[in-house]
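Question (not urgent): is this output format expected?
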Amino acid sequence: MILYRLSQGLVRVSLPLLGVRFRVEGLEHVPRAGAFLLLFNHQSILDPILAQTACPRVVYSMTKSTQFASPLMRWLVPRLGGFPTRRYQVDPQTVRTALRHLAAGRPVGIYPEGERSWDGHLQPFRRGTMRLVLKAGVPVIPCGIRGSYEVKPRWGTRLARGEVTVRFGRPLHIPPARTRAEREARIDETAGLIAEALNAAMES
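Got this back:
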């Protein structure tokens, strides 16, 4: 993942030049080995880049399928840890890819809201993401990103000066569901636990 590591360095160098201070907190909560799900809030187009740059582990992140439209992007995005997912619909191939990465001991990054927030607040989570959490049975690391909405909101056209903080929270150990019925019954409870942890990471 040479390009991945190079991109991390490029982001860290570029942000101060663009007037954006970049802080990372809670690195002690990131497992040094083994699989986990990195779930982060989504306020800005910058968030996946910021989360991957902040994390010392290589994170394989769900990336909307439109990012793979050109031959160049189909070559580049996987080398930056991205794998495609279709928005607004169930995508079994995405789930299989995520589970394959986790089975190999790799971290997988997801924004459970499914899309960027218009107002900077945490949105309801996609039920499909909660199903994956309950199927995977790996630690969940809440990753709160604060300040990216002020720097580059969804409706913004320019990058503003400011400070962005990425904070990793304590791992959540959510037992896997044993049956499909149990998985469906626990979706709302699981979403509540993760939302509480994400909000805490965003506000700290």
